[in-house]
Amino acid sequence: MPKARAAAVPEPRSSRVIRFIEKYLVTPEGSHVGEPIVLREWQKNIIRQIYDTPTRQAIVCMGRKNGKTALIAMLVIAHVIGPEAERNAQIYSSAQSRDQAGIVYKLAAQMVRMSRELSDPNMVVARESAKELFSPLTGVRYKALAAEASTTYGFSPALVIHDELGQVRGPRSELYDALETAMGAHPHPLSIVISTQAPTGSDLLSQLIDYAKAGADPTMKLVLFTAPEDAPLDDPATWRAANPALGDFLNEAEIAKLAEKAMRMPASESTFRNLHLNQRVSALSQLFSLSTWEANGEAPDMDAFAGSPVYGGLDLSSRQDLTALVLLAEGPRGTWNVWPHFWTPAEGLRERAARDRAPYDLWVRDGFITAVPGITIDYGYVAQRLAELRQQCRLRTILFDRWRITELRAQMVARGINVPMEDCGQGYKDMAPALDALETVALQKRLRHGMHPVMTMCAANATVVADPAGNRKLEKAKSSGRIDGMQALAMAVKAATANTTRPLDIRALIG
Question: In this structure, are residues 464 and 473 in contact, taking their beta carbons and an 8 Å threshold?
Answer without folding.
Answer: yes
